[in-house]
Amino acid sequence: MMKNGDLEKNGGTKRRGSYNNYYKETSESEWRSWLVPLIVVANVAMFIVIMAINNCKHNNHLQNGSGQCVAKFLGRFSFQPLRENPLFGPSSSTLEKLGALQWQKVVHEHQGWRLFTCIWLHAGVIHLLANMLSLLFIGIRLEQQFGFVRVGVVYLLSGIGGSILSSLFIQHNISVGASGALFGLLGAMLSELITNWSIYTNKVAAVITLIVIIAINLAVGILPHADNFAHIGGFLSGFLLGFILLVRPQFGWREQCHLPASARLTSKYTIYQYIFWVVSMVLLVAGFTMGLVMLFRGENANKHCSWCHYLSCVPTSKWSCSN
């Protein structure tokens, strides 16, 4: 169930000393991070393709669009008028055509692939920069510690989990972005810290810091035009996946070969790590199954939770959440 080896270990190097101030381990395997930078490059390349297809200078003229394209000197890569897209990006119709998440198309036109493709699209330069800088900051650390296979699985499944929850609650707008996958990495960091509690020092400080970062990012999600359901769905998926995929042997296991047999640990993992693994696996499978069944049956989750819409947008005197 929890294997000793890592699928990616052949690409790693051994190092002595602690990886950061939170570890108690005396030696730690570290892998070279290449998947996270590759994901960043793929997202940037995809955005360039999106802007080329959008071709604001040409299409805005044909459609008699109101407002002028931004940064016209970029030619076909110029941005939509700021009244239409304040994030310096393409039109919503271009995003929809290229795979944005849209409930109607997923459910009634059987385009379930949009649950995956929307993760690779971004609404604008600001959106892209915010997500990719966050991914580099969070993802490289995790990939160095756990390798590309596990981090890649967490990233993709969290992104899809965020897409499922978003589709269940937001049914009249499109949604794009890697935010759900990023929140999945944050969730995995938190559960990894919890399940591997014995190998850390400064545990309380680490937990508080991480919770504050997550809370601030979720709070930003209640602003208009932010899809907080994707954030929440991604976070919950990543949190459960962290208990399943990011488990470490308990402190002292790796060094016990140097100890006499009478002093060696009897179990590689603690009992609570096994409990977390089983419970998380059950909840993850049940959550994805129930979410997909509800989605493809055309269910509107707002009917089952009358207050949940406040998790994604809180109306104030400055803005409305009606759309």
TrEMBL record:
| Pfam families for this protein | Rhomboid
Q: What GO terms are given for molecular function? A: serine-type endopeptidase activity
Q: Where is the Peptidase S54 rhomboid domain?
A: 110-246
Q: Where does the record place it? A: Membrane
Alphabetically sorted, this entry's keywords are:
Hydrolase, Membrane, Protease, Serine protease, Transmembrane, Transmembrane helix
GO cellular component assignments = membrane
Give the UniProt record's GO annotations in the biological process aspect: proteolysis
Q: Does the keyword Membrane apply?
A: yes
Q: How does it sit in the membrane?
A: Multi-pass membrane protein
Among its keywords, does the record have Transmembrane?
A: yes
Q: What's the protein here called?
A: RHOMBOID-like protein
